[in-house]
Design goal:
Arc Repressor Mutant, subunit A; 22% strand; TIM Barrel; single chain; binds iron/sulfur cluster; 15 strands; 9-stranded mixed sheet
């Protein structure tokens, strides 16, 4: 399994809660970035010559802010320099405020077969509070266009625990999204990230109380299950066969190469990261600096808490293969204790979170720290 991540760090404007590596841009900067990105991919593809690419993810930022020509050149660079599997999952994120019929047609022609639309909420008032650039109506139009040009695998991102959001609002968002029948729904709760305007305003944001937040969380599972979505990761739901293969690769710690500003890569257990300085990136600074190597213990912890995020959990056999030792000998006591508390369960050689374990997943993950 091998994946590519390609980062486009541009947005029309910054949402108030967002700490992703993205910013407003000029036409010149976008062109220079596209050039540097193509150059980076060409320069580094040789390292992965023997790898077949199973998934590609264009994230950001807002990748759909690239022009049709820029997207075309980028996809050509990828096709020419990588051996991409015929059935590869090729995803692109899209902000509904940037949907464009011609561009969507082009994206389909270029082989992009999965679209991830960032909606967040169905109420315009909430969207405005978040600093989003689009309305609900724009989402409806964007979604309609995506279907009409042939996207058959669409994810919609939504958020709960938003400032001023009531349980009824959230239920309305869920129902409104469900009426479109996307193949996949990602439902995250708002996290106040340091350095964002929301973090600065945290005292005055009127966030839902813990109990209401819990109700939103429970409602997600209940409504989506009733509509035929299964939860395959703590915050991700899919119709059968539409789990995001790219994200599963992250959680299963398989190899991926990242391209673009600040993009990280994970190759044979070692993490690398590109520079986060646009100036240096454009100068073609050698990318993929190795970050602090993971110790064996760090890698085991990561295996456990990334794997446990998925409802399928972790396999003792995979652990043995990766670390040459038994999971029981490292985590036996912890797993027995968690099982006694009803937070994890086992089936065959797999360990996974129970419903109660999902509710207190942060506590469970903390138990795996060595
Ligand atoms: S559109 Fe997405 S990446 Fe851009 S600022 Fe908003 S949340 Fe962040």
């Amino acid at each position: 399994m091998f994946s590519l991540y390609i980062h486009i760090p541009f947005c029309v404007r910054k949402c108030l809660y967002c700490d992703f590596l993205s910013d407003a841009y000029s036409t010149e900067l976008r062109a220079a970035y596209a050039e540097a990105l193509n150059a980076e991919i060409k320069r580094e593809a040789g390292f992965y010559r023997n790898r077949r690419v199973d998934t590609i993810f264009f994230g950001g930022g807002t990748p759909t802010l690239l022009t049709e020509e820029q997207l075309e050149e980028l996809m050509e660079t990828v096709w020419k320099n990588f051996d991409v599997a015929e059935d590869a999952e090729i995803s692109m994120e899209m902000n509904p405020g940037t949907a464009d019929w011609k561009k969507l047609v082009r994206m389909r022609q270029l082989g992009i077969n999965r679209l991830s639309i960032g909606l967040q909420a169905a109420e315009d008032e909430l969207l405005q509070k978040l600093g989003r650039i689009h309305t609900w109506k724009q989402f409806e139009e964007a979604y309609g266009m995506a279907r009409a040009v042939g996207f058959r695998n669409i994810n919609v991102d939504i958020m709960s625990a938003l400032p001023g959001q009531k349980l009824a609002d959230y239920e309305h968002t869920l129902q409104a999204v469900l009426s479109f029948e996307p193949e996949h729904i990602s439902a995250y709760s708002l996290i106040l990230e340091e350095g964002t305007p929301f973090y600065e305003q945290r005292e005055s944001l009127a966030l839902p109380e813990e109990e209401e937040e819990r109700q939103m969380y429970d409602l997600t599972e209940k409504l989506l299950r009733a509509e035929g979505y299964h939860r395959y990761e703590i915050s991700n739901y899919a119709k059968d066969g539409y789990e995001c293969r790219h994200n599963l690769a992250y959680w299963r710690r398989t190899d991926y190469a990242g391209f673009g500003l600040g993009a990280s890569s994970f190759i044979s257990g070692v993490r690398f990261q590109n520079t986060r300085s646009m100036e240096q990136y454009l100068m073609g600074k050698r990318s993929k600096e190795q970050v602090e190597p993971l110790s064996r213990e760090d890698a085991m912890e990561e295996f456990m808490f990334l794997g446990m995020r998925c409802m399928a959990g972790v396999s003792a056999e995979d652990f043995r293969q990766q670390f040459g030792t038994e999971m029981e000998s490292v985590y036996g006591k912890v797993l027995t204790e968690l099982e006694k508390q009803g937070l994890t369960a086992r089936e065959g050689d797999r360990f996974f979170l129970t419903k109660r374990g999902i509710d207190v997943s942060n506590y469970v993950f903390a138990q795996f720290l060595l």
